[in-house]
Amino acid sequence: MNYRLLILLCCFQLTSVWAADPFHRKEEREKIDHFNVAAFPLPVPGSDSIEVRAYLEIPYLALQFLKRDSVFRADFQGTITLRDQSGYQYGRKIWRDSVVVDNYVSTISLSLSTVTWTRFTVPPGKYHLVAEVTDMDTKSSGENSGDWDLTVFQGPDALFPPVVLVPREGEWGFSPGWIPLLNSEIRELEDTLRVMIYYKSSGTGILRTALLDKDRKNLWSRSYSIDTAGDALTKEYHLPPALFGDLNYSLELELEAGDQSYKQAKHLKIDKPGISRLVNDVDDALDQMIYILSDKERDRLKKARPEDREKLFKEFWKSRDPNPDTEQNELMDEYYRRIRYSNEHFSGFTAGWMTDMGMIYILFGPPDEVERTASTSTHRYYELWYYHRINRQFLFIDYNGFGDYRLDAPLVGDPFRGL
Residues 408, 397: contact at Cβ < 8 Å? Predict the structure, then answer.
């Protein structure tokens, strides 16, 4: 086993998946960031109004579970509010609920979540949608909000964003047992994918639907002639799983009505066995393994044909699975979670995962303590990361003042002495 992989394995075992992060330690105690809000505008038959169906998805990972007897429980409150630009509140829904699981692994799962939803009926206009989540035990809270222009759907002709339905037990505003895809990610594609298209037409026209792969190759397409005017119309398509052999796709719609053309699109990402949900592109993910590949593996990667790279990726990570008896490869998830964090926080002249700070963060995880200082004589900035749990420290120096921190040799004693 190569040295860097050994480091990663040790640091993975020493820290929890969401270890305390000194960069945002105070914020993370007070703020919940990891939840998703999605809203879908739909036409209302016989009316110029628009129905907004809003969904709040909270991953178990975002909540604080407490062990009570033999189970783990998290209590939370969720709120969705819709206001217009003047601040007038068109509606507000508040939920208070609990999640109970019987094992710790479920509490940090990337795939398990709780979902609540509501609906509002509003006139076409510009709105501000706000979703809030509060953990009732820790009192941590978070907010997601955004502006939404629904004026594009006014008038006799309009095309609404496609609604992709996936199976989930319960009632979610559509057919029982079907929930709209709340982001771009399809976690399990075992059955037909249902696509609902909503539009308004004042006369004849053509509705086109196409599924494109990441290279813009047309994999599936349909055209539907509109010959009957109606104020709210629906078209449904069923896409077979055989269409989806890769990770990324684009579902694109076009409505030609009169002399106007209306377009909508939705990105789709398919989860595949053996590939972390945090991976968006296998080629990029392979390049990002540079810190833990052995010389022999690098040689295999260089010689691999493009069509063999996904198979090679799965082999590399299968050999690194700390718990091969489970479906989830926890080490792979943690590795690409650190990749994502590095890209979000250390990117500058280059991608965050390629920086020195990114490399150390990926291999060692979040430091236990961060110390920052500046030299009045050299006008350089210094940042020291302490890893008390493994008795290591790393000094980064910003030589040019543009935030491009480079790793210096680890120092002992007071690393800022004499600066």
Answer: yes
